[in-house]
Design a protein that fits this description.
The chain has 219 residues and is an alpha/beta fold. It folds into 2 domains: 3-122 and 200-218, Rossmann fold, CATH 3.40.50; 131-196, 2-Layer Sandwich (Alpha-Beta Plaits). The protein has 7 helices and 14 strands. Helix 1 crosses helix 2. The longest helix has 12 residues, at 3-14. The radius of gyration is 17 Å and the shape is globular. The structure holds ribulose-5-phosphate.
């Protein structure tokens, strides 16, 4: 099974977590794009949909979905999104697509966070994937220096501006042995908007697609 097929079966498996009358949050990325393409098949169950990025909004609208503002729907029943890495505690690295801030808001606002990945994203220790940090542009060099002190190697994501008008630093070579502490420390650096470490609000359910099929962890 190739990676695209794995993404599709993970997306398909997540549909069963959408309750009737759902306020549904939709993440960003190629795995979620597989989900979006399946959403018309469960249109009747969806009361409202909120989106984590301009790209996802455009794709949803292309399929005829009206996208609501989070402020107008209250809490999200279920938020479905991909990830760049996941550990056994369902803590994640996210933000490869640069949508980490809105993704973290939707994860935080959701009653259930369902993460869909293929098995290449499962890791023992987070950090092999460069950790994205969204920063206020004027703080970029300052935050980068702070991350060097934390033994990371920051690389500015060139020619990329987030949906919020900010920059991304990708931090290479971090071995994140304590994700909770690392998330807290990075959040405290002035100028950091969001770190793509989802440890304080991990996924509730992790759906992993592999050659042998689907494995669902959590509930
Ligand atoms: C976007 C994300 C994505 O969920 C993450 O990058 C995984 O993407 P893909 O499904 O394309 O591998 O966090 O900001």
């Amino acid at each position: 099974m190739d990676q695209k097929d794995k993404k599709l079966i993970a997306a398909k498996a997540s549909l069963e977590f959408i309750p009737d009358g759902a306020i549904l949050g939709v993440g960003t990325g190629s795995t979620v794009n597989e989900l979006i393409d399946l959403l018309p098949s469960v249109r009747d169950k969806i009361e409202a949909v909120v989106s984590s990025s301009a790209a996802t909004t455009a794709r949803l609208q292309g399929l005829g979905f009206e996208v609501s503002m989070l402020n107008s729907v209250g809490d999200v029943d279920v938020y479905i999104d991909g990830a760049d890495e996941a550990n056994k505690h369902l803590q994640l690295i996210k933000g490869g697509g640069g949508a980490l801030t809105r993704e973290k808001i939707l994860a935080g606002a959701s009653r259930k966070f369902v993460c869909i990945i293929d098995d290449s994203k499962q890791v023992g220790m987070l950090g092999a994937f460069p950790l994205p940090i969204e920063v206020i542009p004027m703080a970029q060099s300052f935050v980068a220096r702070k991350m060097v002190k934390m033994r990371g190697q920051p690389i500015w994501r060139e020619n990329f501006v987030t949906d919020n008008g900010n920059h991304i630093l990708d931090i290479h070579n971090l071995q994140i042995s304590n994700p909770l502490e690392m998330e807290t420390r990075i959040n405290q650096i002035p100028g950091v908007v969001t770190v793509g470490l989802f440890a304080h609000r991990p996924a509730d359910v992790l759906i992993v697609a592999s050659d042998t099929g689907i494995r669902t962890i959590g509930n």
